[in-house]
Please model this.
Amino acid sequence: MVLDLFRKAKSSKEDEQGRRRTAAVLDLALTQRSKIHVQFDAKDSNLTGVTATVMAVNDAGLVLELGGVANLKDRFLGRSITCFFRIVEREDRHREIFYNFSTDILRIRNYADRPPQIAVAFPAALNGAQRRKSLRMRPDFQQFSHIAIWKYEASGFDMAKPTVAHSHFKSGQAQVDNISAGGLRFRVKRQHVKDSALEPKKGDRFILFFTFEDKVPKLREEYWLVAKVNNIQPDPVTGEIALGLEFVANGVRQESGKVEWSKIEDNVIDDMAQRIYLWHVSLYRDRGLA
Model:
């Protein structure tokens, strides 16, 4: 049994309420089989891409089954790890909430026929993050290997003539302010607004295409999206226009070359959310916060 990895430990009365809240969240992670991204301390290991699933939770800690690693050596006993995960709340409406915590490895068990398991100490605290739908990042232009935007007219759009092309972003004529799993905000300089005769109105549709520099396993390499204009913010001084777009349709290129479209449910593109979450984790790591 996985629980026999633990030794009994008593919790102090003063933090019992906090421990109960933490236990409730971890129980949800167990029930939902949440994917946990495990980060090892850089001074201990250069292991990356390690994931985990919660197998058991009790007052002493939890058991994690690891993925992305065949075995774990005993030298990791007592070492600290940081875990990032999310849970889904469905009581009112679909909400996805991110958490992270740090803990120490108490036990390691390697198996010949299945992934290794570790027992880790019960977290002293859970750190919350934004829910997935509202998790926004301001990406560097270098994170896109290509990006293009077309104004969608009743007659369609010319694939060869984007309204805002990759070259415009590269030259600084356009810029992505932020991106989330549900939308994107970008701005266009006055000169290109004039050159492209861009006169957007609320409710207008745009076609978006982008690919990312980083290739992530199981995530798409290209994105075709239909977005509608939710807000327009012209700058009377500089002449820039900032557009807030909401993703409404998701496209996947078929073998024939045609793009098959589907409606986006609850304004969230799951694999886009995962990519942005990984950016979020990377930002924490780069700033020394994780």
User: Anything to note?
Assistant: The chain has four helices and 14 strands.
